[in-house]
Amino acid sequence: MSDILSKFQTSAEGLSESEVQKRQSKYGLNELEEKKPKSLIKLFLEQFIDVLNGLLFVASIAAYAVGDIIDSAVILLAILLNAILGFIQEYRSQKAVEMLKSFTTQESIVRRNSKIQKIESKYLTIGDIVILEEGDKVPADLILIESNDLKVDESFLTGESEPASKDIDDEVHMDSNIISGNAEGVVTKIGMETAIGEIAGMVQEESEDTPLQNKVSKLGKVLSFISIIVCVFVFILELSKGIPIVETFMTAVSLAVAAVPEGLPAVLTLTLALGMQQMAKSNAIVKRLLSVETLGSCTVICSDKTGTLTENKMTVRESYFFNENKTSLIGVLCNNAVINNDEIIGDPTDGAILKYFNNASDDYGSYKRVNEIPLDSNRKMMSCEYTCSEENNIILSKGAPEIILNKSKYIDDNGNIKIITPEIKEMVLKKTGEMANDALRVIGFAYKTKDSLDDEENLIFTGLVGIIDPPKKEAEKAVKECQNAGIKVVMITGDYEITAKAIASELNILTTGKVITGSELEKLSDEEYMEIVEDIEVYARVKPTQKMRIVETLKRKGHIVSMTGDGVNDAPALKKASIGVAMGNGTEVAQEAADMIIEDNNFATIVKAVEEGRKIYDNIKRFVKFQVSTNIGAILTIIGTSLLNLPIPFTPVQLLWINIVMDGPPAQTLGMEGAEKNIMKRKPETGDILNKKVLTRILISGLVMAIGTTGVFLYQTQISTQTKAMTVAFTLFVIYQLFNALNCKSDSEESSKYLYLGIVLSLLLQILIIYIPQLQIIFKTTAIGIADWIMIVITASTIIIVEKIMNRMIK
Ligand code: ADP
Ligand code: MG
User: Fold this and answer.
1) Which neighbouring-strand residues pair with 112?
2) What is the distance in A from the centroid of ligand 1 to the CA of 732?
């Protein structure tokens, strides 16, 4: 071992700060290189690569060839505008996703200059001494100089799913997971030099499409297919009427552009990405777009108690000793926390105990730790073996009082070792119950002189402490909010039943439902558990491994389950949950398994994220409704006028304009609407955003637009010139869109001003298009009179009336 230390020119005390500086400038940072995001130019140019754009380009050339310079130029301009819109959307989502990366930094615990410190893993350098704990991701390639039963999952390197045991002088690799035990190691390789760095080369960010993205793109494809057929049909029909081929081609292509919802996937991604960004600002780091979608429909939140619902600022409040000195010895030595300038590094329970006993004047310097059976949430206790000047080693244990008590045979009554009688046992449990009733977390202490066996049996019990961990202030309000929103809150804890009950009642999580313990749960059959699962509000003394069963059963009941966790043992349940939530201070293994990381470890933040998720869900519905009904409206209008043997009511340039209004300001702002007033007062919406009802409503809206436009166009062709009739039909169709945008808006006051702004802007431009002579030439419009406007507004308002009716009939 000292070989290794000298080989890397370091010592067990760690490097000095100046040495660290020197090595960092020599070896660089401990980072894996990532593929660079697309350059701006590439992103912009990519916008042009698109079938519709290609066809538009051909149309533009054709127009130029037949001398129609204006149309040709306008079509080019439309291509450019579409590209700019698409570019802005993609650029913004790329930025939003990039920003998220900066929120998740990996940290390591190192010893430098004999001091233990927490640093960002990228600042690790060769020769650093790293301390590894259960749940850590190994931050670099290391060789161990100390190991307590270290078990490492390195399946990503070896394919071997069984955790490997690692001893002194063994190598552990960057990005493997510490499943149990703890260790110290010397950094031997960093960054791209590590095994993972060499294998992976560049790290590629994988991006998978969410079910909603798939749905929307499928809907888009169906619509495209239908519109292409209609366009081909229109092309043939117009040709057969003897209309010149170039004009017909331009019309057909522009119609396709207006009828295909090509902007939809981009707006969807942007909305989700901006939602992620918004959530990140309120401390909820969502790792995948998918989870933004799922969050909005969450029906149950299963939350840890300690640290999520409570402060995790632990203080010993009560104690009960048979032998205070011995308890103090155990408390200080069977403890892995360190107090560094009043700041606790390590487990908060350990920290509270250390703080409490540290004041004692005893000096335990002569004790040396030789072994540890680490704390494990399944066992709920830990033990350490120490040697000292005395002939035999001692085993010191602390943990859940009933577990420690069950492993104890004696008590140490101020030096008198007595057998534990049923009376003594009852008294200790009574004391435990009293402390737990006051919502205290109770820890029991015991020891023994080591005999031949290295076990935790026949211990000598020495006392109890009760630790207070007050509930978070915001938690009670957030619980209430969930209850109003139809979201069930379930508390899951490894803590004692009575403690759990006391805290759950304080937070109003425990109302009319049941409390169940892990061992009771174990005895239930799957059927029995299914029966009562929805009545259970508190799980106490559960093992993390049981969380999996809780998630599975709730999911089988049809719930969308969010589950929190922080340890290695929680990782499978986090993966299984609809939304796995890890805490910012949780283990890296849990964070990796999770869909969302709550930076401030706060239950209220989860609820905030759900609210944000609901808002995003609503906004997606808004612009899908808006855009798709326009697409359908345009197609149906063309079909209608063809059936009536009328000319096409819109010129190509008008169709391109309709397309820009549709993808432009009103649509964009619909994705940014504020939350509905009742957003957290209504039941969760699960299932499909694009369900039958929504699709029916979209279809009806499209139909209303088509009937109105066709009808007015038919009437206008009887009483005025073709240009006038087309101008009225075109304006009517645009006004339909603007009214439809109003239909889709949220009832919140928050951000609708953007929407109103977008609508007013579009209206103004429409007026300019009709009345400015130069624009009249481009758009082939003509001035229309007040009577026409009245007809337009009255007809267009049918879409608002129909929406109101549908609100009542199609719920
Ligand atoms: P939770 O996070 O739900 O409070 P834990 O798994 O952290 O549950 O703790 C479960 C039980 O394990 C505690 O009630 C306590 O009895 C025991 N325990 C927790 N931390 C320690 C510790 N540092 N040392 C000894 N026992 C502990
Ligand atoms: Mg805990």
Assistant:
1) 115
2) 68
Other beta carbons within 10 angstroms of residue 11's beta carbon come to: 16
Q: Is residue 755 a contact partner of residue 669, using CB atoms and an 8 Å limit?
A: yes
Q: How far is the CA of 228 from the centre of ligand 1 (A)?
A: 64
The yes-or-no answer on residue 304 being catalytic is yes
712-756 per-position pLDDT tens digit: 999 999 999 999 999 999 999 999 999 999 998 888 776 678 888
Among 787, 781, 777, CA closest to 724:
781
Angstrom distance (rounded) from CA 755 to CA 206 = 34
Ligand 1 atom nearest residue 398's Cα? 25
Cα(564) to centroid of ligand 1, in Å? Answer: 16
Encoding tokens for residue 116?
A: 């233990």
Q: How many CA atoms lie within 13 A of 778 on its CB side?
A: 20
Q: Given the structure tokens 């003897």, which residue do they identify? A: 242
Q: Which atom of ligand 1 is nearest to the CA of 443?
A: 16
From the CA of 334, give the closest atom in ligand 1: 24
> How many other β-carbons are positioned within 10 Å of the β-carbon of residue 653?
22
Instruction: Find tokens 């409704």 and name the residue.
Output: 625
In 3D, which of 783, 794, 676, 695 has the Cα closest to residue 739? Answer: 794
Question: Which residue type does 786 have?
Answer: I
Query: What is the distance in A from the centroid of ligand 2 to the CA of 114?
Result: 28
Which class for 678: exposed (0-12), middle (13-18), buried (19 or more C-beta within 10 A)? exposed
CA gap 648, 650 in Å, rounded: 6
Which ligand places an atom closest to the C-alpha of 492?
1
Contacts of 448 (CB under 8 A, 6+ apart): 394, 395, 458, 459, 460
Q: Residues 128, 304, 663, 788: which is the catalytic one?
A: 304
**Two tokens at 592?**
């990796």
- 137 token code pair: 């991701």
Q: Which ligand is nearest to the CA of 498?
A: 1
- What's the rounded mean pLDDT across residues 524-536? 96
The DSSP call for residue 375 is E
| DSSP symbol at 696 | H
What would the mean pLDDT of 174-183 be, rounded to a whole number? 90
Cα–Cα distance measured from residue 18 to residue 702, given in angstroms and rounded to the nearest whole number:
71
Query: Is there a contact between 188 and 126 (Cβ–Cβ < 8 Å)?
Result: yes
| For residue 695, pLDDT beyond 70 | yes
Position 488, amino acid = K
Residue in 30, 34, 33 with CA at minimum distance from that of residue 140: 30
Q: Which pair of tokens denotes residue 589?
A: 């293994």
Ligand 2 (ion): residues with CB under 5 Å are: 306
What is the CA 626 to chain-centroid distance, rounded?
A: 27
Helices (H), 644-751: 652-663, 665-670, 692-719, 722-744
Residues 367 and 413 sit within 8 Å (Cβ to Cβ): no
Note whether 768 and 775 are within 8 A (CB): yes
Cα–Cα distance for residue pair 804/798, rounded to 1 Å = 10
Percent of the chain at pLDDT > 70 equals 96
422-426 long-range contacts (CB < 8 A, ≥24 apart) are none
For ligand 1, pick from 338, 443, 467 the residue to mutate: most ligand atoms within 8 Å of CB: 443
Choose one of 311, 327, 495 to mutate for the ligand 1 pocket test, by most ligand atoms within 8 angstroms of C-beta: 495
Shortest-distance atom of ligand 1 to CA 347: 23
Which of 256-260, 333-337, 449-453, 684-688 is predicted with the least confidence, judged by mean pLDDT?
Answer: 449-453
Residues with CB under 6 A from ligand 1: 304-306, 347, 349-350, 375, 377, 380-382, 398-400, 441, 443, 493-496
Q: How far is the CA of 306 from the centre of ligand 2 (A)?
A: 6
Confidence of residue 202 (pLDDT cuts 50, 70, 90): low
Is there a contact between 94 and 44 (Cβ–Cβ < 8 Å)?
no
pTM, full prediction? 0.85
Hey, what amino acid is at 386?
Y
688: number of CA atoms within 13 Å, CB side? 10
